[in-house]
Amino acid sequence: MFGGKLEGGPSNVTDELWVFNIPQRTWSLRKPAPPPPYAQEGHSAHMVELANGEPVMVVFFGYSPIYSYISKVQEYNLRSNSWQVVSTGGAAVQGGYGHSGVYDRPSGYVFLHGGYKTLGTGKYGLVDHLYRYHVHTRTWLILRESGQARYLHSAVLVSGTMLVFGGNTHNDTSLSNGAKCFSADFLAYDIACDSWTVLPRAGLHRDANRFGHSAVVKNGSMYVFGGFSGLLLNDVLAYTPPSCLAFADPDACADAGPGVRCHWVRGHCVPWEPRLAADVVPSPFCPIRPESTDEQCFRFSDCASCTANTWLCQWCEDRKCISASSNCTVLTLELARQHVGALALAPPPSMLSEHQLSLWKHGARRRGHSILDTSRCMQKEEQECSYLANCWSCSLSLNCQWDQQQQECHALPGQLCGEDWQHVGEACLRINASRESYDNAQHYCKNLGGNIASLVTEKQVDFVLEELHKYHLQGKTLSPWVGLRKINVSYWGWEDSSPFANTSLRWLPGEPSDSGFCAYLERAHAAGLKANPCTAPADGLICEKPALSAQSLSSRSCRTPCAQRSSCANCTSQGTECMWCSSTQRCVDSSAYVISFPYGQCLEWQTQDCTAQNCSGLRTCGDCLGQVECGWCGDPSDTGKGVCMEGSYRGPLKSPPRAGPRDRDKERPRGDRSMVLDQALCPADRGFHWAFIHCPGELIGYHCPAL
Fold first, then answer.
1. How far apart are CA 204 and CA 210, in angstroms?
2. Other Cβ atoms within 10 Å of 492 Cβ, number
3. At 162, is the secondary structure helix, strand, or coil?
């Protein structure tokens, strides 16, 4: 048993490795050398045999309070009692917290589904990613998604099918879209055909919704134990799928699903096994599915992921992923240099629309080179760096650098900006004239190692306005996307997490409207911004990437991790990077708030304007009862005077006396804030009044008479 969260302590995620002896029912603590690289939680682990027969425990993903979301694969060797982070091939995958995983020993495949992950700068949420990992070759393959994101769910493998049950599907923050925290969804992934099916819900007399449960398989049945649905559960649910042996003819055997995959062998219907796939996905007997579209492949922004998935995509020489049924068309560089006009300022030509391509001279396009085999891809450091979620994890890689302004990890650049980029201050800017949605514009900039531009300096704004004016003089008026979007109900911020000051660039009159959550530059001459739906197209986009040298970037030290900040003041000193939970006295990374308190343990949190850390610092009853851990002891004079102190609805609380030398073994664990009731702090027999829900005079139906 490796890692996890301990009960006590402010930064209570551990890297301990424990072994349970089943016959003797005893626990023992292992001390590997070298030790594990991360203390983490929300990961998964499987006991496997490598190709050489070596027994290892493989640990996938998880979350570290220091290094954020982990995308690495770790192996613990049972014989040598040592850890290592292994190098993997195939697709570039992104790790997260609370995914589910199953291991099929005959094939050596591990299937990982879902989880809670970072989705880019300032974005994080649930995903329905499905990955396949081969323990013998240490390679990744991206499989089809379920369309139903979740985390803290369970998964088991039965008859060639991965059964997924329950989980938390709530991905809302301030605005609710109706997602349920406690799900009873029952999904089946057909490994042979790479397809998902929603199974009928359990017809039980009680509610089966839950997350944080466990599931195992015994004798072909799935058993689900415990979980959380507002209360901790201790019940057991059992699901028995159809048995392949019950089907007596080949046709019925082939149609045995959903929820089970059978095939006909020597006159009998038997369960299909993943080892029979022989790396062919989907299997030949599966229904024919339509060819993938360019839009389905475009989301893969690196060669390895583009070619190591089941969508049948290809990687073109101009760094884009399209359907294998399409042609990789590029424009000749010679013609681009000869051409004068607006399009000469809009690299790369591969992003131009068909209408814009028609403006180029005949013969400019040619058939480009493409890659279909992952083994032909170059190194994938660029994408792997982008999956390192904070400065500390980025600094562990020699091939990556942390951009403090963009709050992103990038691959080390070969030069200051690179071809087709303009060096502006400490940033590199690039304008493209293609008509794209905000998300596609973001993909385009990411493919180039950057992000949609956060125009936070006057120098950047002046450069962009001057370039747009050049376009206008050449007959091309652009209204490009900028990296400004709506963060919550009332707050707009730049992609690099900087606040929007409404100075150099300003909203046009009547803006921002409620029509959209993304911003574009509507009137370049007036530096005017307008809100637009993120899915709607805009005429142009502006990309940005750091221009600092690797040496100057590497010399910057990382900030103190949120988990190591011990007060509200230093927790919230770096903007919205960290959040302070006053009820647990913990500082957590903003991107990990949900997973830090999956069962609602944090009663209130702050990102700025820290309130008094002790109840005694609050001077009015209203302020006092606004803090969940405080109560008001009203003065006998009934004049509104009183004292705010820690308490509950039963009365005031106080800390127990500290353990003496004779009670060392009884000392409370670090981080334990348990308190005891003490009515003497607000004695009712002396006329004091205890209030915890309503201040005196605020009870329902009570009001002061008019004078």
1. 14
2. 19
3. strand
What pLDDT is attached to residue 671?
39
Per the model's pLDDT, the better-predicted residue between 701 and 260 turns out to be 260
Q: State the chain's mean pLDDT as an integer.
A: 83
- Select the highest-mean-pLDDT range: 37-41, 43-47, 346-350: 43-47
pLDDT exceeding 90 applies to what percent of the chain?
A: 42
Answer yes or no: are the C-beta atoms of 324 and 292 closer than 8 Å: yes
d(CA 487, CA 123): 9
Classify domain 562-606 by CATH architecture. 2-Layer Sandwich (3.30)
Backbone angles phi, psi at 277, to 5 degrees: -70, -30
**Percentage of residues in the chain with pLDDT exceeding 70?**
84
Residue 314: half-sphere exposure toward Cβ, Cα within 13 Å: 16
Q: Which of 50-59, 382-391, 423-432, 670-679 has the lowest mean pLDDT?
A: 670-679
Beta bridge partners of residue 686, listed in sequence order: none
The gap from C-alpha 632 to its chain's centroid, in whole angstroms, comes to 41
- pLDDT for 203 equals 77
What is the model's pLDDT at position 549? 56
What sign does the dihedral 376-381-385-386 (CA atoms) show? negative
Whether residue 356 contacts residue 345, with contact meaning beta carbons closer than 8 Å, is answered with no
* Distance, CA of 511 to CA of 408 (rounded, Å): 29
User: Alpha-carbon distance 521 to 206, whole Å?
Assistant: 55
pLDDT at 359: 46
* Alpha carbon distances (Å) from 492 to 98, 483, 512, 566: 30, 10, 9, 29
Do residues 10 and 31 lie in contact, with contact meaning Cβ atoms separated by under 8 Å? no
pLDDT at 707: 40
Query: Is the preceding omega at residue 35 within 30 degrees of 0, hence cis?
Result: no
The model's confidence at residue 339, banded by pLDDT at 50, 70 and 90, is very low
Q: Which residues contact 447 (CB under 8 A, 6 or more apart)?
A: 301, 319, 320
Distance from C-alpha of 143 to C-alpha of 137, rounded to nearest angstrom? 17
- Tell me how far the alpha carbon of residue 548 is from its chain's centroid: 27
- Give the 3-state secondary structure of residue 212: coil
Cα–chain-centroid distance for residue 573?
A: 24
Q: What 8-state DSSP symbol labels residue 306?
A: H
CA torsion through residues 287, 292, 296, 297, sign = positive
For 75-96, b/e burial (b = at least 16 CB within 10 A) is bbeeeeeebeeeebebbbbbbb
The residue extents of the domains of the chain are 562-606, 615-660+670-691
Long-range contacts, 694-702 (Cβ 8 Å, 24+): 694/625, 695/621, 695/622, 695/625, 695/632, 696/621, 696/632, 696/634, 696/638, 696/640
Exposed/middle/buried for residue 702 (C-beta within 10 Å: 0-12, 13-18, 19+): exposed
Q: How many CA atoms lie within 13 A of 474 on its CB side?
A: 17
Give the integer Cα–Cα distance in Å for 333 and 4.
54
CA distance 454 to 577: 17
Q: What is the DSSP letter of 276?
A: G
pLDDT band, residue 331 (cuts 50/70/90)? low
